[in-house]
Amino acid sequence: MELSNINELKGILSAEGFSFKKSLGQNFLMDDTVCPKMAESAADCDTGVIEIGPGAGVLTRELAKRAKRVVAIELDERLKNILEKTIGEFDNVKLIFSDVLKVDLHSLIKEEFSDCKSVNICANLPYYITSPIIMSLLQSRLNIGSITVMVQKEAADRLCADVGSRDAGAVTVAVNYYSKTEILFKVPRESFLPSPNVDSAVIKLNILPSPPINVADEKKFFAFVKACFAQRRKTLINTVSNTLDISKDSLKSALDQLNIPQTVRAEQLTMEDLSKLSNILFI
Ligand code: SAM
Question: CA–CA separation, 11 vs 112, rounded Å?
Fold first, then answer.
């Protein structure tokens, strides 16, 4: 079976009368180089892998060939018969039909992967919920080693930007709090059926054993970071005082204590600057 062959993929989908749902981010991969490379980054014979959104199973097959066990979570039950055909030959794959955001992944990892040395996540993510899925995976502090995911190229640039650079946003800070990020490779839009109107990239988030900065109150820190980047081109003093209940004087004094100019914008601050500022403001 060669699912990256467009005719074979189309044949399997049309035999089941399958039609793509844009609302579920259904763009299936049909490039025979991409899935093996993604699978290499996430799986080896001692590893358990959770796949989000297997679609017709093209990436699932590559993961199944390399991993000890694969659990694939798919929202669209119309793909049941198709997946039974495409991955039925592998006895190390389990399918769960559910919204990934509603699955208790802590319990799933304990129940399904107790004999695996490590667990990783691998997915060609539905673009409509890329950030919520990534943030939910990171914030729930799962016992995982890495997350290898395909996302829109613009999302990859934002997620993997250096904090302190123009491309950084609140999500960049959040992702860097939990992981070390890297862009693995780019994937052109023609690699998908149907072809989306943007290019993509595969990124890898290597989970850190502990955060790289010292934050006194995580909830307040993330609310502060969100406020800092709410109006990216304005000064930090203006955007934060407009968004949170913090006076300009308190912000000026916090910046002075750290020798940061009062004209600074959020995109010029490092992780360390942001954590120190939030610790001064909220303790
Ligand atoms: N992995 C396949 C591939 O690479 O060809 C399909 C990727 S497609 C971009 C995204 C898949 O995620 C679709 O199969 C879609 O039905 C599924 N999906 C969308 N929302 C989901 C959710 N909340 N939970 C689980 N799967 C979801």
Answer: 33
Domain with CATH 1.10.8.100 in the chain: 218-282
Q: What is the CATH number of domain 218-282?
A: 1.10.8.100
* Residue 63 CB less than 6 A away from ligand 1: no
Of 3.40.50.150, 1.10.3210.10, 3.90.180.10, 3.40.50.1370, the CATH number of 6-207 is 3.40.50.150
Cα(38) to centroid(ligand 1), Å: 15
Judged against a pLDDT cut of 80, whether residue 270 lies above it is answered with: yes
Residue of 117, 187, 116 lying closest to 150 (CA atoms)? 187
| 29-47 pLDDT per residue, tens | 998 899 999 999 999 999 9
CA distance 40 to 179: 19
Which of the listed residues 4, 12, 26 should we mutate to test ligand 1's pocket, taking the one with most ligand atoms within 8 A of CB? 26
Tell how far the Cα of 257 is from the centroid of ligand 1, in angstroms. 48
